[in-house]
Design a protein that fits this description.
This protein is of the alpha+beta class. It folds into 2 domains: 2-163, Four Helix Bundle (Hemerythrin (Met), subunit A) (Up-down Bundle), CATH 1.20.120.520; 198-309, PAS domain (Beta-Lactamase). It contains 9 helices and 7 strands. Strand 3 (211-215) and strand 4 form a beta hairpin. The longest helix has 33 residues, at 102-134. The protein starts with 11 loop residues before the first helix and ends in a 12-residue tail after the last helix.
Length: 321
Amino acid sequence: MNQFSNLPEGHPARVYLEENQLIRSLMSDINSIDIGAEFERYETLFAKLCLVEKHFARKENQLFPYLEQYGWTSPSQNMWAFHDDIRAIVKMARNLTETKELVSLSMTLQNLFSNLEHIMQVEEGRLLPRALEMLQESDWMEMRDGDEEIGWMFDEAPAAYPAHVENEYIHPSQDTTKRKLPFSLEGRIDLEQGHMLPEQINWLLKFMPVDITYVDENDIVIFYNRGDNRVFPRSAGIIGREVKFCHPPKSVDQVLLILKEFKAGRRDEAEFWISFKGKFIHIRYFAIRDDEGTYKGVIEVSQDVTHIRGLEGQQRLLDWD
C-alpha cells in the first residue's frame, strides 16, 4: 500500500486497499490451517472472506459510475464480469462447505484465492491509480456517502471521510452537494432522489405492473395510474370524488375503517387477497405521512400475482422464447 500511503484515513481508495490487505490475511489464515481438523475456525474465516461481495458492490455501484462520467467505461464492462466469475466460485465454495466435501473444497478455494489475487493486483496496479488521477476530491467525498449504505468488510466502519463530517447526517432534502449530471435539469421535477421530466413520471406510473390509487388526507381521490392492463377498471370520473363513493357498498365499511385507523396513527398498512375473474389479486393499503408523521393520505396498490404465485425454482438466464 506504499503508493497510497499519502491518502487520508477513510478515503474510499485507501479503504479498498485496506480491504485487500484483509482479504490476503484471510486467505493466508485459511491456507495455514487443516480445514478438516479446524472446520469451525475455517467457517468463521470463510464467512469473513465472503464479505468481499461488499467490496465488489461498492466498486460496481459507486466507483464505476463515477469513472463512467469521465468516459472510462472499461471497468463497468470488464471488471464487473470478472466479479461475477468470482461470485460463482464463492457460491461453489459455500456449497462445498455446507456438504463438507473437503477435497473439492480445497481445490475450489485455491481457485478462488488465485482469482481474488488477480483482481486485487488489477485494482492496485491500474484501477485505483487511474481513478485517483481522474476523479475530483468532491467525487470521492460524495462516493463515501454511498459507501456507507453498502458497507465494508470490516467489523467496524472506517474513519469518516472527510474527517469533519463524522457522524453528521444530512437529510436528502437538505443535501446541497452538486453532482455533475449528464442531463439538463430544465423542465424536470426535483424528487427526493433524482430529477424526472413530468412525462417520465407519467410513463413510470403507467407501465408499473400494479394498480395505484392515491387518496389524499381529505379522503378525495387525486390520482390513479392508467395502465393498459389494470386489475380493476377506473375512469377519469373518480378524480375529485370522495373515496367512499368509489367502492361497492359491501366493502365501503372496511375502507372507512382503514382510513380511520390510518388517520389515528394506529395502523400503517392493510392487506387483502382475493380471487377475481380467475386471477389471484393482492391488495394493499399504505398510509402516507410526511417527515413529521402527519397523515397525508393513502395509496391503494393492487396486483395480479397469479403468475408470481406459480413460480418455482430459479431462473437466472434470459428466456424470451
